[in-house]
Amino acid sequence: MRRYLYISRTKVNMLYPQIPPSILERISAELKISVGLLAATWRTPDASSVDSLYAQTAVLDEYIRAHEDVGSVQNPGSADAPKDYIAGTLLIGRGIIEDDEEDVRLACFAGRYDSTRLVMVGAVDSLVGMPDEVGSVHYVDYYDGNFYYWAGLRALRFGTKPKPKERREIEREAMRALEDDRETLGRWADYAIDEVADKMQSLDFLAQVLYFEEKPQKVLIASPIYVALA
User: Fold this and answer.
1) What's the total number of domains in the chain?
2) What average pLDDT is seen over the chain?
3) Are 13 and 104 within one domain?
4) Range list of H helices, 68-183
């Protein structure tokens, strides 16, 4: 049994029903998972619902690795044509990056690998053991948007400019910084990597690629479907 640290219920709920029935039947037989368990609801936090979520995540993992465009941190595709997903086992820092003043909180898994900076961000309530927020559904651009917002706040606080009062002003300032200087994203990735560097573990993961920048340095931003202890 995999020891999950993070599972995105939103992504599992969206992607799992798209698995063709014939493939679903074959994968569940290979993994020795009962159809009844896969069909069980997991919207309430009882034991059977948690088991069902884990089972669906395992099946989805097998399906994506076999049938979708999956790369790795070392081979995520190109900036013009990045892979849809990345997967692997790496020594990764993990934690929560947040800004109390602006009410920004993200689960973060990040590290440096040769010339590539990796930052995976997702919802805090998807961390295993955290209370699930009722009705918490976040689309993919929510995560990188909030990461850019958090990093933009950090950049403004480290700089000499006064911090804008409105969130939209901060977002515009952050986007202008990205457009004006492509090294900005690398610095922002460093903020997140340094924030979680004190808790490094060997972790398995499957994540959806949000953004990949190759120049002037490689920066990979993704949102995990799951993260588990290796």
Assistant:
1) 2
2) 82
3) no
4) 140-158, 167-180
Of 37, 36, 34, 29, the closest CA to residue 53 belongs to 37
Instruction: Examine the domain organization and report whether 88 and 62 are in the same domain.
Output: no
* d(C-alpha 53, C-alpha 73), whole Å: 26
Q: In the listed set 70, 86, 104, which residue is the last one of a domain according to the structure?
A: 70
What is the C-alpha to C-alpha distance for residues 221 and 206, in angstroms, rounded to an integer? 13
Q: What is the DSSP letter of 18?
A: G
Q: How far apart are CA 85 and CA 178, in angstroms?
A: 24
Per-residue buried b or exposed e for 90-121, using 16+ beta carbons within 10 Å of the residue's own CB: bebbbbebebeeeebbbbbbbbebeebbbbbb
Specify the pTM: 0.83
Cβ-proximal residues to 53 (8 Å cutoff; 6+ apart), any chain: 7, 9, 12, 42
Across 8-19, average pLDDT: 91
Range of the domain at 40: 4-70
